[in-house]
Amino acid sequence: MSKTKDSTKDPNSISSTRILAECALMLAVGVVLSLVKLIDLPYGGSVTIASMLPIIIISYRHGLKYGLITGLTFGIIQQLLGLNTLSYVTTWVSIIAVILLDYVVAFAVIGLGGAFRKIIKNQAAALVAGSILACLLRYACHVISGATVWAGLSIPTNAALIYSFGYNATYMIPETIVTVALAYYIGSLIDFRNPTIRHMGQTEKTKVPLLYWTGGLALAAGLIIDIACIFPFLQNPESGEFDFAGLSSVNWMVVIIATAVAIVIAAITFGIALLKKKKAAAKAE
Prior knowledge:
Number of strands: 4
Number of domains: 2
Shape: flat
Radius of gyration: 22 Å
Strand order of the largest sheet: 1-2
């Protein structure tokens, strides 16, 4: 008797068509988020609302191959959106170097953000680790570009590497903070490991109360406002150098109010959450 081939479809498999559709969707989300700039430095570089996170999620959900392809496409789109950058370089070698280091490679490496899926069991922690890795790799690309291609142009030739480290840090540090914060938040709410994306509460016993997340979001919002108010003034508008003298021009009243409101909201929500937790524990006894 001949054996018939089992045609039963694996319920955990995802078709390549669906994967490509998800990649395209998340790519579009990333591009839109990249246009919403919290900070836009005059000599290049900006802080966005976690525009790298959709690429990191694709990498985590579907693997490094799709992550790198999506990241590469993201970099090409970013290059097309920033074509005016090429007008500052004078040679073909410099143009190619800028395209590769500041765009193609810098954004393609974001696709490595899913590298910790099999290493770290906790999804939120894996996304946080992946976000940090992606941001560090992108930062390294920009530093190399600044210390080589842009040395003598927008960056002083003397101590170009140190300057490049400092300048690129002015936007990559807050970008990393925003990305990591949202990666942890979203990674704790939504299960990206399942073929059908669902709320984390359906698959894990650990459930973070909404009040905790409300307080966390308040703190994150306060941090973003503070970053948007402070970091643009850490760069000298004439030389582009990292300069603390600009802190005197910061609207500290806005910073103080935003920070105070965030802390108060967080304290209230955390307090209510703790009280509810104690009451629930008392009833259980």
